[in-house]
Write a structure and sequence with these properties.
The complex is a heterodimer of chains A (325) and B (318). With 325 residues, chain A is of the alpha/beta class. Chain A is built from twelve helices and 14 strands. In chain A, the strands form three sheets. Chain A has a seven-stranded mixed β-sheet with strand order 3-2-4-5-7-6-12, sandwiched between helices. The longest helix of chain A is centred in the first third of the chain and has 15 residues, at 9-23. The termini of chain A are far apart. The model of chain A has no long low-confidence stretch (mean pLDDT 97). Chain B has one domain: Thiamin diphosphate (ThDP)-binding fold, Pyr/PP domains (Rossmann fold, 3-Layer(aba) Sandwich), CATH 3.40.50. Chain B contains ten helices and seven strands. In chain B, helix 1 packs across helix 2 (43-50) and helix 1 (3-28) packs antiparallel against helix 3. The longest helix of chain B has 26 residues, at 3-28. The chains are: A alpha/beta (325), B alpha/beta (318). The interface between A and B is large, with 36 and 38 residues.
Chain lengths: 325, 318
């Protein structure tokens, strides 16, 4: 058994960055305020690696993503940070029209081995433009791999894979997971893209949850276990590629499927999973699929309203009970 | 100069300062959630600029928008209630610091997205032109915002269409934790105006009268159909980027020096007394009035109800 240590999500990301930068001189970081980082992920890295490789940028998301693409096209492995996932929208054009399509449009001549790391999610009363969970938006764009880790262990292993990938990766880091603890291997390990992780085994219902919703689902599962209901929780780990095999394998056993995400339900992650299940595995289901997610509403500043936006362990447990009749 | 006008400038600045310092206290006491960006130290920019326009003119604002809004006439009780996330807030507790807005006094909105207001302000200026109502727009933004593509696009369009938009850059020497020299090569942001063939003016942002004069001239130009101006007001924020900022990027001495020697309120108060022979008692009575106003604003906010979650999705659509 490899040696383990208990660290926060923030430090898991940081460890992956440090280890990958040490391993490969082509890896470098760029983004706004990396020197005194908003969530502290990159604090001290300029001292460690120098300002050539840890590059503080102006507030210019287009230029950040564009520079990452250009550097990736010409032999580097940039890891760009977009300070809040909401600001991805400022760089939508290079992300969607260049980064995602460069390999294809050039008939495979180009490769874009870059990562965009970005904190997403609500919970800090940061309001409508600093709290969004836009993961699903990018599932609609062929050519972008998307990672959605829910634990420090997954963050470190998936980020290493992302950095080594020859495809562009959008790497979502839920803000509320930065300060949650979890065990990680000391030293190098990677986790594969497109391989879901079963976070809890059960036989009565399959819940597919991502990012901060995994923990809520686990808490709900604990509550339900007291009533004799055994929940299986599948964490897809990446949304593109999406491991339908594991999801369908699980629901073949449980006959019931619920999806939980923080982003708006409409056009969301659950919508895509439900559609694929409807196409490929409808006959195995004993009940309609249930999608839980953020309300179809911009995110309010008010804490009481913000709370009302999202599934909670109680509402998840109640929804499961309702499904099981 | 008219004493009433001068005292009005003082009052606006003192109102902003008192509001901001109270917000800091209330945040630290746990009564205000979220990320709070204070404008203490930058009062002269908002006060001087907004004194140069009319109540029905518009302003565009930023994440550091309390001062802009107060100077435009925003009610401090509604604003405090907004920051307390109460239903009586000017945005019904949905917006908070980042989006604090009161459209009834001509604010087009504060923005959580850096530079987002600049392009929208152009639209309001275009609208004024199309409606022939002779209104102008003041667009506030920071030094950091001028590195956004949006800034370039907005400046070019405003210049091309001679829009009645006055671009006011509050250059407080830092964009979040990044000092100016680490985010641009130039020292004066005003030089960027040249590229758009519009006037670029540097003004002492700690001198409320200097700001007033510069903006007055730019507004005149805008109303005459001669197009936009870029005004760079050199200023300084006394507090961190947001409350809780560890401020590793600047020294305590630097902050103290600005607070001591370049405090726009202290500077103007001294001028009022010395040059304009204003009575100290006139200033004192303004101070008293404002302190009471902000105290009442806190009471109003604290007593106001929180929003009802059953109305969550109200106002997503018309
Ligand atoms: C598009 C975008 N990028 C980054 C941020 C994060 N951010 C918020 S304020 C800020 C600094 C803005 O600096 P400046 O324009 O100088 O305004 P100041 O805060 O100094 O008033 C940054 C980087 C943001 N809100 N929006
Ligand atoms: Mg600034």
């Amino acid at each position: 058994m490899a040696e383990m240590k208990l660290i926060t999500g923030k430090d898991a990301i940081r460890d992956a960055l440090i280890e990958e930068m040490k391993r490969d001189p082509k890896v470098f970081l760029l983004g706004e305020d990396l020197e005194q980082a908003t969530f502290g992920v990159t604090d001290g890295l300029i001292e460690e690696f120098g300002s050539e490789r840890v590059r503080n940028t102006p507030i210019s998301e287009n230029a950040i993503v564009g520079a990452a693409i250009g550097a990736a096209l010409t032999g580097m492995r940039p890891v760009a940070e977009i300070m809040f996932a909401d600001f991805l929208m400022d760089a939508m054009d290079p992300i969607v029209n260049t980064m995602a399509k460069a390999r294809f449009m050039t008939g495979g001549q180009a490769k874009v081995p870059m990562v965009i790391r970005t904190p997403s999610g609500a919970g800090l009363s940061a309001g409508a433009q600093h709290s969004q969970s836009p993961e699903a938006l990018f599932m609609h764009i062929p050519g972008i791999k998307i990672a959605v880790p829910s634990t420090p262990y997954d963050m470190k292993g998936l980020l290493k894979t992302a950095i080594r990938s020859d495809d562009p990766v959008l790497f979502f880091e839920h803000k509320m997971l930065y300060y949650e603890g979890g065990d990680v291997h000391v030293g190098d390990y990677t986790l594969p893209f497109g391989k879901a992780d079963i976070k809890r085994k059960g036989k009565d219902i399959t819940i597919v949850a991502v990012l901060a919703m995994v923990k809520k689902a686990l808490l709900a599962a604990d509550m339900l276990a007291a009533d004799g209901i055994e929940v299986e929780i599948v964490d897809p780990m990446t949304l593109n590629p999406l491991d339908m095999e594991t999801i369908i394998g699980s629901l073949k056993k449980t006959k019931r499927l619920m999806t939980i995400e923080e982003g708006a339900r409409t056009g969301g992650i659950g919508a895509e999973i439900a559609a694929r299940v409807a196409e490929e595995a409808l006959d195995y289901l004993d009940a309609p699929i249930k999608r839980l997610g953020g309300r179809d509403c911009p995110i309010p500043f008010s804490p009481v309203l913000e709370e009302a936006m999202y599934p909670t362990e109680d509402s998840i447990a109640a929804a499961v009970k309702q499904m099981l009749g | 100069m008219d004493k009433k006008f001068l005292l009005g400038l003082y009052e606006t600045m003192f109102r902003i300062r008192t509001f901001e310092e109270e917000v800091k206290k209330q945040f630290e006491d746990g009564n205000i959630p979220g990320f709070i960006h204070l404008g203490s130290g930058q009062e002269a920019v908002s006060a001087g600029a907004c004194a140069a326009i009319k109540p029905d003119d518009n302003i565009g604002s930023t994440h550091r928008g309390h001062a802009n809004l107060i100077a435009k006439g925003g009610r401090t009780d509604r604003m405090m209630a907004e920051l307390f996330a109460r239903e009586t807030g000017s945005c019904k507790g949905r917006g908070g610091c980042l989006h604090i807005t009161d459209m009834s006094v001509g604010s087009l909105g504060a923005n959580g997205i850096v530079a987002a207001g600049i392009i929208v302000a152009n639209g309001a200026a275009l609208s004024a032109k199309l409606q022939h109502n002779n209104k102008v727009v003041l667009t506030f933004f920071g030094d950091g915002a001028t590195n956004q593509g949006k800034f370039h696009e907005a400046m070019n369009l405003a210049s091309l269409w001679a829009l009645p938009n006055v671009f006011i850059c509050e250059n407080n020497l830092y964009g979040e934790a990044t000092p100016l020299a680490k985010h641009m090569k130039i020292k004066d942001i005003a030089v960027r105006a040249k590229a758009y063939d519009m006037p670029g003016v540097v003004v002492d942002g700690q001198d409320v009268l200097a700001v007033f004069d510069a903006v007055t001239e730019a507004v005149k130009r805008a109303r005459e159909g001669k197009g936009p101006t870029l005004i760079e007001a050199k200023t300084y924020r006394f507090h961190g980027h947001h409350i809780g900022d560890p401020e590793t990027y600047r020294t305590k001495e630097e902050v103290e020096e600005w607070m001591e020697k370049r405090d726009p309120i202290k500077l103007f108060k001294a001028k009022l007394l010395k040059e304009f022979k204003v009575n100290a008692s006139d200033i004192d009575s303004i101070d008293k009035k404002i302190l009471k106003e902000i105290e009442d604003a806190v009471k109003f906010a604290a007593q106001s109800p929180t929003p009802d979650p059953s109305n969550l999705t109200e106002n997503v659509y018309a």
